[in-house]
């Protein structure tokens, strides 16, 4: 009986030691790593990711280059990229879209299109805010618009839902190429994402 | 030798008398010692082992920078917090679930997240980035809406107000009016709640006065449960207070009864078992008591409050100016733990003197108008799933400790088993997370001014509930610039200026 008791006590001590050792085991250390821009960073969030920006820019650039008005134009058409209108719930630096699209187009089609630098221009602010339809009403001169053939406009909208369990965001990106002479939409393209973030029980 | 000992003892005694304990963060903030406050937050942000507290240190730093009008620094901190509170990365969650709720990364309650969005919104609005200001409003309203039975309708009035300002700045008058209507409805619906809640508080105070048989923690929980139900009631300001109160008590009773009977394990655990049955008892009492206080909730009082609030809102909204002044008053709520294992969280209002502000510009004086009450937001946050888990953990610890104690004294042979049970109990942490953005304001006020372009000086004075001025808090802000055709926002935080 005494031997049994000693064994139980020994077992208990071993178990206690194991449990204590488990408590002091280290959690994974901090680190940083280099990722491809299209790789998921694993940090969560339901907003706009670099992957989305790059995918959208690639699609838009591909579509625009294939347009007959661009591909078959005698002279290189001049495009003014207007700021992207953000109506989502996310704070976005929308210039990142226009810059990525512009860079991709220049890389792949510099022999087909020319881009107008809106930051270096003296275009009136209402034009730069994307209100290009009323070009004539805007007050900017014919000389200024003379060289621009198309405006590239973008808008981002979202529908978001939330509950205690998490959030869901459907984001719709829409881009269009507008003829500066008559405001005709000669091309439009869209891209959608839907992301859900589920909160763990600790955060509900 | 004896003399030397006495001398050392006396010196130690004197030292213990003269050494003051370090001031708490909140005290530093209230005394306007923002630099010291920021240094403390910086220390936390440098400690990797306190990573779970980083977002809290960041929002507190943002508060201090806002109070000092360092808007760029405030925006940096708020942007960092905004990305971390909306991440669903799951990092650290398993560890925090096991080791205790306080180990989780601080993301704040919905009203704290809404406040982060509000500040980001006013900073974006100030800098003319209206699209991002609108985005912040939407995010803040979404975070607040998620708490109320999954309704896509928030009651965070300040965000609706900011949204209306942004829409006006963007030239979207229709949307601005829609946001103003939601702002108005959100604030007016609280008049009903204010009248009802003050009655409920009075009834509970009368019930507990001079009677040892009422347990404070249970009374507070009963009140919180009732207030949470009240907040979930219809937002229609036209609804009569009595109707709302009656339905809210019935709903609270259903929940309390479920909780009282649902946990079988707690039947023999006196502390836990009596909690919810007591709460049911208190809610039943209030249902009876409220019938005898009908005159307090009477329509006359309700109508008077409603009328005053409507006049205030008309003054703010009917003639929107080109200058908006946002004034933060007081100190927000704090959380304290309750229950045998600290498993419950109680929201407590922190006392502060300033209740009104007056802004003097160009020789004219303007009264500020309340646009958000953070104490109201905190007390109507509702329950969480984690609350149930923590309560069950507390029960588990109580029971395992009782069994362990029994086995430890029964026989030497059962001692190892008792120690194992104790150990398993010790590894379970039932304590609730009581971290809160303690330096957030208690109230947000606003006023709208119509000023010609130019440079102005603001004289801001604060008053207590009785209308007496608090001279130490008086603030003067120079070089406030108004530009033609551009909305302007000025931000002021009440507090003692160093």
The average pLDDT score of chain A comes to 75
String of helices and strands of chain A: HHHEEHEHHHEEE
Structural class of chain A: alpha/beta
The major sheet of chain A is characterized as: 6 strands, mixed
* Gross geometry of chain A: elongated
The largest pleated sheet of chain B is described as: 4 strands, mixed
> What is the topology, as strand order, of the major beta sheet of chain B?
6-7-1-10
Radius of gyration of chain B: 26 Å
Rough shape of chain B?
A: globular
From the alpha-carbon coordinates, what is the Rg of chain A to the nearest angstrom?
28 Å
Helix content of chain A: 25-40%
Number of strands of chain B: 10
Which ranges of chain B are low-confidence, i.e. pLDDT below 50, for 5 or more consecutive residues?
A: 147-152, 263-274
What share of the residues of chain B does DSSP label as strand, in percent?
Answer: 5-15%
What can you see in these coordinates?
The complex is a heterodimer of chains A (204) and B (498). Helix content of chain A is 35%, strand content 25%. Chain A is built from seven helices and six strands. By secondary structure, chain B is α+β, with helices and mostly antiparallel strands. Chain B has a domain at 23-87. Chain B has 17 helices and ten strands. Chain B has helices at residues 2-18, 25-30, 34-45, 54-67, 71-85, 93-99, 110-126, 130-145, 157-169, 173-208, 216-232, 241-262, 270-291, 299-317, 374-379, 385-410, 415-426; strands at residues 323-329, 334-338, 344-348, 356-361, 364-367, 369-373, 443-449, 454-463, 475-482, 488-493. Chain B has a four-stranded mixed beta sheet with strand order 6-7-1-10. In chain B, helix 8 (130-145) runs antiparallel to helix 9. Chain B is globular. Mean pLDDT of chain B is 81; it is low at 147-152 and 263-274. Chains A and B meet through helix 1, strand 2 and strand 4 of A and helix 5, helix 6, helix 8, helix 16 and helix 17 of B.
């Amino acid at each position: 009986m005494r031997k049994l008791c000693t064994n139980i006590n020994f077992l208990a001590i071993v178990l206690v030691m194991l449990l204590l050792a488990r408590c002091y085991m280290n959690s994974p250390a901090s680190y940083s790593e280099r990722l491809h821009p299209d790789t998921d960073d694993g940090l969560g969030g339901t907003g706009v990711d670099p992957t989305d920006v790059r995918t959208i820019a690639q699609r838009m650039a591909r579509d625009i280059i294939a347009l007959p008005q661009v591909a078959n134009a005698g002279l290189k058409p001049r495009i003014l990229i207007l700021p992207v209108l953000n109506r989502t719930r996310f704070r976005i630096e929308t210039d990142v879209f226009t810059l990525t699209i512009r860079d991709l187009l220049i890389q792949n089609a510099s022999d087909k299109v020319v881009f107008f630098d809106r930051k270096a221009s003296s275009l009136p602010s209402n034009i730069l805010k994307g209100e290009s339809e009323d070009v004539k009403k805007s007050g900017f001169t014919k000389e200024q618009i003379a060289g621009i053939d198309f405006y590239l406009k973008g808008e981002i909208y979202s529908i978001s839902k939330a509950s205690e369990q998490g959030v869901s965001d459907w984001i719709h990106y829409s881009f269009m190429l507008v003829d500066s002479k008559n405001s005709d939409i000669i091309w439009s393209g869209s891209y959608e994402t839907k992301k859900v973030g589920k909160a763990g029980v600790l955060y509900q | 030798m004896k003399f030397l000992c006495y001398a050392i003892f006396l010196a130690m005694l004197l030292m213990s008398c003269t050494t003051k304990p370090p001031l708490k963060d909140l005290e530093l903030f209230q005394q306007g010692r923002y630099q010291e406050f920021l240094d403390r937050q910086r220390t936390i942000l440098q400690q990797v082992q306190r990573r779970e507290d980083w977002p809290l240190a960041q929002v507190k730093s943002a508060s201090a920078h806002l109070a000092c009008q360092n808007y760029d620094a405030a925006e940096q901190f708020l942007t960092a917090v905004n990305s971390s509170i909306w991440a669903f990365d799951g990092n650290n969650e398993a560890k925090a679930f096991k080791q205790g709720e306080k180990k989780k990364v601080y993301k704040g309650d919905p009203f704290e997240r809404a406040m982060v969005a509000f500040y980001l919104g006013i900073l974006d609005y100030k800098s003319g980035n209206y699209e991002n200001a609108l985005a912040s409003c939407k995010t803040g309203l979404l975070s607040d809406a998620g708490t109320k039975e999954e309704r896509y309708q928030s009651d965070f009035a300040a965000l609706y107000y900011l949204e209306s300002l942004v829409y006006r700045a963007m030239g979207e008058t229709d949307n601005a009016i829609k946001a103003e209507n939601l702002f108005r409805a959100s604030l007016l619906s609280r008049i009903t709640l204010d009248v009802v809640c003050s009655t409920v508080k009075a009834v509970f105070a009368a019930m507990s006065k001079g009677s040892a048989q009422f347990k404070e923690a249970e009374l507070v929980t009963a009140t919180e449960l009732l207030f949470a139900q009240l907040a979930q009631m219809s937002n229609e300001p036209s609804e009569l207070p009595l109707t709302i109160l009656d339905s809210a008590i019935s709903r609270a009773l259903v929940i309390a009864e479920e909780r009282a009977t649902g946990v079988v394990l707690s039947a023999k655990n006196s502390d836990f078992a009596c909690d919810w049955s007591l709460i049911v008892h208190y809610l039943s009492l209030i249902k009876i008591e409220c019938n005898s206080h009908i005159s307090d909730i009477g329509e006359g009082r309700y109508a008077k409050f409603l009328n005053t609030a409507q006049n205030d809102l008309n003054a703010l909204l009917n003639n929107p100016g080109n200058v908006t002044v946002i004034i933060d008053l007081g100190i927000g709520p704090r959380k304290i733990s309750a229950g045998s294992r600290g498993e419950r969280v109680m929201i407590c209002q922190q006392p502060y003197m300033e209740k009104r502000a007056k802004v003097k510009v160009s020789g004219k004086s303007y009264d500020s108008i309340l646009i958000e009450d953070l104490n109201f937001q905190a007390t109507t946050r509702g329950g969480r799933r984690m609350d149930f888990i923590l309560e069950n953990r507390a029960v588990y610890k109580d029971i395992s400790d009782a069994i362990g104690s029994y086995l430890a004294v029964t026989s030497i042979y059962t001692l190892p088993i008792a120690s194992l049970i104790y150990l398993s109990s010790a590894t379970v942490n039932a304590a609730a997370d009581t971290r809160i953005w303690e330096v957030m304001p208690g109230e947000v006020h606003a006023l709208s001014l119509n000023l010609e372009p130019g440079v102005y000086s603001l004289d801001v004075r604060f008053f207590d509930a009785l209308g007496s001025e608090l001279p130490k808090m008086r603030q003067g802000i120079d070089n406030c610039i108004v530009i033609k055709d551009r909305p302007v926002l000025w931000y002021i935080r009440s507090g003692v200026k160093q």
